[in-house]
Amino acid sequence: MRINIETGELLAFIAVAKQSSFKAAAEGLFISQPALSRRIENLENSLQERLFERTTRRVSLTAAGKLFLVHAQAVIEELELGIRSIELGTAQRREHVTVACVPSVANHLLPQVLKRYATEHPNVRVKIIDESATDVLESVRSGEADFGINFIGAQEAEIDFEEIMQEHYLVVMPDKHPLANERVISLQALAGEKMVSVSSSSGNRGLIDNAFARVPHRPVIQYEINHVAGAISLVAAGIGVALLPELSIKNAPFTGIVARPLSGAGIVRSLGLIVRKGNVLRPLSAKLASALREAVSSRQE
């Protein structure tokens, strides 16, 4: 069967999928909106599938569009690799691994693992999808990522979740804060504090809200921000106190803050390696997953 799809059509499709907007995608590709629309229409005609649901307010991928996006991105990546190979005059190996993980893993665990992995597999291309827990889960579910490191997915029927560590939350505060001299801190002691927290859409926030619901005097969340790194910055500025996972605090590039454990059971989340149910990792992916397991184990010893 002849494939009658042009590269420009794939690039247009990927741009619209990422921007969720024909206008923004056209501007990014430096073409007119009618030209962009023609490319999408030609692609949909070739595939005999609708790729986007269009309304006056938004553009979203159809089920077929979500499936095709994974393959379209892979085709463009392989084409770019081929072009670079020609420019360098060398034949580069086409082996690649894609791992999805939450930002705390990408920032504080993955770099050292990849440094060792690269010495053994210098020609393997590694793509890292460092996004929210929900995005990591979707990347694995869709097949875009070979595997993921995430703290959600254990309850998903389509996902195999292998716990690799339990991560405790710490109370993070300015080093001049009155509670900074305490060895451990209770949730009750945070009543009346101006709390800094990640947004309500975050998995982190759900754990924190559940913990606050168990104490008589619930601390008030005064400041809300989308990312953990931003929360640390606000605490470092002396604005408030935050409850944050310990992995995000390790080696954080901030001075003037301290972290203390919570008393009692505290707040704990399970960090796991996730793959699509029944999926067997390719050897190179399996080796990177194993290296991550070993890195986590060594941190806990």
From TrEMBL:
<dbReference type="GO" id="GO:0005829">
    <property type="term" value="C:cytosol"/>
</dbReference>
<dbReference type="GO" id="GO:0003677">
    <property type="term" value="F:DNA binding"/>
</dbReference>
<dbReference type="InterPro" id="IPR000847">
    <property type="entry name" value="LysR_HTH_N"/>
</dbReference>
<dbReference type="InterPro" id="IPR036388">
    <property type="entry name" value="WH-like_DNA-bd_sf"/>
</dbReference>
<dbReference type="InterPro" id="IPR005119">
    <property type="entry name" value="LysR_subst-bd"/>
</dbReference>
<dbReference type="InterPro" id="IPR036390">
    <property type="entry name" value="WH_DNA-bd_sf"/>
</dbReference>
<dbReference type="Pfam" id="PF00126">
    <property type="entry name" value="HTH_1"/>
</dbReference>
<keyword id="KW-0238">DNA-binding</keyword>
<dbReference type="Pfam" id="PF03466">
    <property type="entry name" value="LysR_substrate"/>
</dbReference>
<keyword id="KW-0805">Transcription regulation</keyword>
<dbReference type="InterPro" id="IPR050950">
    <property type="entry name" value="HTH-type_LysR_regulators"/>
</dbReference>
<comment type="similarity">
    <text>Belongs to the LysR transcriptional regulatory family.</text>
</comment>
<protein>
    <submittedName>
        <fullName>LysR family transcriptional regulator</fullName>
    </submittedName>
</protein>
<keyword id="KW-0804">Transcription</keyword>
<dbReference type="GO" id="GO:0003700">
    <property type="term" value="F:DNA-binding transcription factor activity"/>
</dbReference>
<feature type="domain" description="HTH lysR-type">
    <location>
        <begin position="5"/>
        <end position="62"/>
    </location>
</feature>
